[in-house]
Amino acid sequence: MEWDSTLAGHASSWSSRCQMGHSQDGNYGENIYYNTMNPQDANFHMKNAVQSWFDEHKQFRYPNSCGGACGHYTQ
Length: 75
Fold this sequence. Notes:
By secondary structure, the chain is mainly alpha-helical. The protein contains 3 helices and 2 strands, in the order ααββα. Strands 1-2 form a two-stranded antiparallel sheet. The longest helix is centred in the middle third of the chain and has 13 residues. The radius of gyration is 15 Å and the shape is globular.
């Protein structure tokens, strides 16, 4: 893994808009998850976020196709 200044600029630009949702530029993967929670439950909810992204593997067909929603998994 290495730092990508172009990607960092894209992320900064999109996040400064404070819009919930994926950007319209389909060139970058964006793992988005939101939930309401009590602060004491934060670890539980973070595990749910990662699990929900991983569960998309069921839609992925090797070597490289998606039969449904699997954009978070393939990132």
